[in-house]
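Name: tRNA modification GTPase MnmE
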Amino acid sequence: MRDFDTIAAIATPPGESGVAMIKISGNDAKAIVSEIFKLKNNDVFLNIRPWKMHYGHIVEYDSGEIIDEVVVSYFKAPKSYTAEDVVEITSHGGYTSSRRILDQVLLRGARPAGPGEFTKRAFLNGRIDLAQAEAVIDIINSKTDQSMKTAMAQSQGRLSKEITNIRERLLNMLAFIEVTVDFPEDDLESATAEKVKCDAEEILHKIETLLKTSGEGKIIRDGLRTVIAGKPNVGKSSLLNTLLMETRAIVTDVPGTTRDVIEEYLNLDGIPVILVDTAGIRDTEDIVERIGVDISKQKLSEADLVLFMLDRSRPIDKEDIEILNRLEYARYIVLLNKTDLDDRLEYDHPVLADAIQVSATNGYGITELKRRIKEMFFAGTVKAGEYSVSNDRHKEALIRASESLKDALVALEENMQLDVVSIDLSASWSYLGEITGDTLQEDLIDKIFSDFCVGK
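Structure predicted for tRNA modification GTPase MnmE:
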């Protein structure tokens, strides 16, 4: 019953602001608010019509003392965010007012909402599926317009619709097999096997097409982790400052100035980038600098992309080659920095074949760098608003569904009994259901919503 009692929470961040919102959801939401909300026109809140805004004051139930001037909105079930009765109280911003109003709501019988509990109720009440619910947190966490549009596409059910269509086809295949197995005298097994094989191949192609979007989708959702690497004093921190268009890192002529890792978010033409400036990698006797170098090496192994910087005014040396060797299995772009200097060197090396000439001080070459990143990860164009697989949980479920379909096709090739094939098809259907929440265990559903913020 805990999932269906009346809950309440402050839905806006704490601190000074223009307004704050307290959200209440459940069968008793309207009755609870009616005890502490006095309309300006002396009307009774229990009698007001839904989907309208009402002006008045929240008062203490016992003393009648006015707490704040508010606007209250009532959304009648099932036409609300949670598909339950929902009341939203909009008060002045600030910690004290919103906290006092919430206290009065809780004293009248509501309980504090847990993380993501409003969205969880929308899921439990069938208003949205699990993939759409997860898109809500992606909308909140989105760092660029592109990531926002992609999350919105998922929240509107575009991925869910595709998954549902695939599951319906699998279900029809299972029903077809069941009829064939139940009526062996009709001698339909050979024809059924051929049709099942054709359908399974089509579905497998659809799933693998979805999986191909997972790389781009994850970057749009979580950001492209980009590490700026190189030996000391090649211009890594200057590049960070230029890309951010602000002085975020200290820049000096002294090698080893950067001792710790600096991380910042950057909107690179719609791509959310986690830009990581690292300490220059070299052998050093300085204990603090050595710790920074060790962290830099660790960040290289975690990066989606490495921007390997070379100083155009100095020859490539042993330290540069050692860093390059660490990038053998990484995706990287070589940047020849300090091209603005008169004493830049002209030298030839295989690593420079695709290098980009840049100047971290005046921004030369940054446009080409952005183009190269988009070409490397997005085939040149970042497509917004299209559904894609951006969630690791969804990707894992698709991979397992794909593997089960492949097992079914192997069984068909080996002329195994159709009821054996149906086991693999059922497994694929079940794995896909984990994406929308139809076949996911309750404890895993609770874990997913526990990552949401309170009040959403």
